[in-house]
């Protein structure tokens, strides 16, 4: 039994086909153009009747490049809204194919109206229902933003990445591609260095548990992560030493010194850095590392390291010798550390000591977790003791039976 699907020029899809085909054949003259336009419209009508939405999308996209060059932005958005709506008529695999066709066409000329192309991709994404289709379009949008240099338009969406991952349920390889692309997008934004490093670290972490051959694929990005960490003036803590993709550099003939530099910044003090720099100044310059900036960071890191001692006090003289500074610069560097939120302390000028109540950790591994557990246990005990004392006093004052006193559990 044949199903009759009525169509007319009022159908948005047919209207788009007629408009774009007339635009494409405008220079050929009416005798040539009219038969071609009629043929394309009939073909589009047949696609609608037969439900061949993928073929219809392909037909509507035939003159996409021409449309971008000759149509206003507002009309362009309307045209592609109609085209993108075709995906909503389909499910699963067919939806994915239409989404792939449309997004691939849109991203072919990333430097031509990139912001508008990105907006069209966002509209397409919101019309899709399948997680595979959505992930594919989002990746296309990321690459378009990167290649078209409109990264600021897509950066706000990164706040929802965790929600997206739950929705997409993608595998490890797709996660790697996603994290690395986001890191590259953020690198293009001058104000997002810390976020770029965060996603680069996420990318490297996906190689944990893989064999050495697979891990070696991340070698260049592992080096990049080390250099970005060393360069960053506002990143003082990371877990790179615990990531296998970074640990492989230690025994690599080409990158062993890069790994050694990372260990210095995460586990040693200024003197170790100065010794390393003196022997490897050419290497430092090849990675664009500025010696003065590295000294500044290492001084702050070294000061924090001094604050980690058990006594909680740092003599001014020790700060001076460790940071290799003058007497009158000691308090200046303490203030810098406080401003950078690396430590919480007070300066006892009379006794020439810095009294530390808290300081940041450069690495946060098993030892740090044990220390935190011990501090929490102590705090819990102190709170329990305080509550018991208060309640005991309350019993005495109110004459309540001692058995009604509650204890923290």
UniProtKB/TrEMBL annotation:
Keywords: Cytoplasm, Initiation factor, Protein biosynthesis. The keyword Cytoplasm applies. Residues 195-361 form the PCI domain. Pfam families: eIF3m_C_helix, PCI. GO terms for biological process: formation of cytoplasmic translation initiation complex. SUPFAM superfamilies: Winged helix' DNA-binding domain. The keyword Protein biosynthesis applies. InterPro entries: COPS7/eIF3m, eIF3m, eIF3m_C_helix, PCI_dom, WH_DNA-bd_sf. GO terms for molecular function: translation initiation factor activity. One of its GO terms (cellular component) is eukaryotic 48S preinitiation complex. It is found in: Cytoplasm. Belongs to the CSN7/EIF3M family. CSN7 subfamily. Belongs to the eIF-3 subunit M family. PANTHER family: COP9 SIGNALOSOME COMPLEX SUBUNIT 7/DENDRITIC CELL PROTEIN GA17, EUKARYOTIC TRANSLATION INITIATION FACTOR 3 SUBUNIT M. Component of the eukaryotic translation initiation factor 3 (eIF-3) complex. Component of the eukaryotic translation initiation factor 3 (eIF-3) complex, which is involved in protein synthesis of a specialized repertoire of mRNAs and, together with other initiation factors, stimulates binding of mRNA and methionyl-tRNAi to the 40S ribosome. The eIF-3 complex specifically targets and initiates translation of a subset of mRNAs involved in cell proliferation. This is Eukaryotic translation initiation factor 3 subunit M. It comes from Gossypium stocksii.
